[in-house]
Amino acid sequence: MRRLLILLLVLPLAGCGGDTTSLEPLAEAARKTTDVAGAHFVMTGKIVGGGERLVFRGPGEVADHGRKLHMRMTMPAEILGMKGLADGDVTFDVVSSGRYFYFRGGPFTELAGGRWVRIKDDEPGFDLGQNDPSQMLEYLHATSEVEARGEDTVRGVDTTHYEARIQLDKVAERVSPEAAKALRGLTEGAGIEEIPLEVWIDNESLVRRLTMDWHPDGGTVAFEMELFDFGDVEIDVPAASESVDLSKLLGGG
Fold first, then answer.
1. Chain-centre distance of CA 2, in angstroms?
2. pLDDT per residue over 158-169, tens digit each?
3. What's the whole-model pTM score?
4. Cα dihedral sign for 136, 141, 142, 147?
5. Could you give phi then psi for residue 140, rounded to 5 degrees?
């Protein structure tokens, strides 16, 4: 379950209700939104199932047409193994750029002495799935059963609300070989072929909100992201002197 959310996030959108419509509005929105240099967002996520529980929330930014991401992530201390060391919630920063993720604050403070912890996206035992922050928009090219559900307002902006289903076999064709293997494992092992998705698109074909509320096998996979303040966004990627590899911290060389 945790792997599925990571695959879907990273990281990390007036019709007559019920009328089936063309897939083009969603694909066009994915293209138009990715064409914009950057945007700000707020995101929440929750996974419960299979003995696992993952909950997070926070604001952030995407830049360089989705190739860079920064998020100020907040999670319950107990999930991070900090129960008793921290009360309530713990907040830390995440930056994604190229093949690397960078973490600082929260559980990483004591580990790295204030520096950023650098983790490659294929680090053994630390599967982060797709590292492209715009991946969720790419999934709009792999949807089916699209229905326009009517007009809505998101952060004061007029939008059209759509419901659709992500087809995992089509997603597997658009992601890295490693992520495709994980997705095929889901479809073959768990019999999961589609995932519900809701998207809100404004009059300029920009994605304003994405949500997912899915309950496989009695569990929960819930996700919401709102995008706003589109335009040029700057994200500082930590320099080599400001970061240290996780493998070195763990004695791997």
1. 12
2. 999 999 887 777
3. 0.78
4. positive
5. -70, -15
